[in-house]
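Hi there, hope your week has been kind to you so far. Do you reckon you could talk me through the fold, stretch by stretch? Thanks so much in advance, here it is.
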Amino acid sequence: MTADTIAAPRSSARRGSNWEKWGWLYMRVSGVLLVVLIFGHLISNLIIPEGGVHAINFAFVAGKLASPFWQWWDVLMLWLAFIHGANGMRTIVNDYVQGAKLRAALVWAIWIAAGLMIVLGTLVVFTFDPCLGVTPDSVLWDSCPAA
């Protein structure tokens, strides 16, 4: 190789799936989808209801989470946001952490935390029950079918 030629990139020698390329592509697609989902969420919660932000209370959230459409909307937003954020943090860790073992441990910690939050958030959205634990002195007592 002469002084005026450029060496091939290290990644060109590897065969198989290019995870960095797919991560980069995911960030772009999920970013666009998140903008749509977040603005839809904000418009439906703050602009459309009568009273704006003052209309948001427990009953408002319970009513929205009773609808399968809004459940899936929120879960999609949750999943995309956590994976998007974890992938961004992974990129930062890969760029700035020098030690291979520390870098691997931090990346694992990021993905475990994101996975745990995704599982817990999904469980909350799909198992939310506004009547759970309602007592006769609660304002929800009359509106809960088991009361």
Remarks:
- The two ends are 82 Å apart (CA to CA).
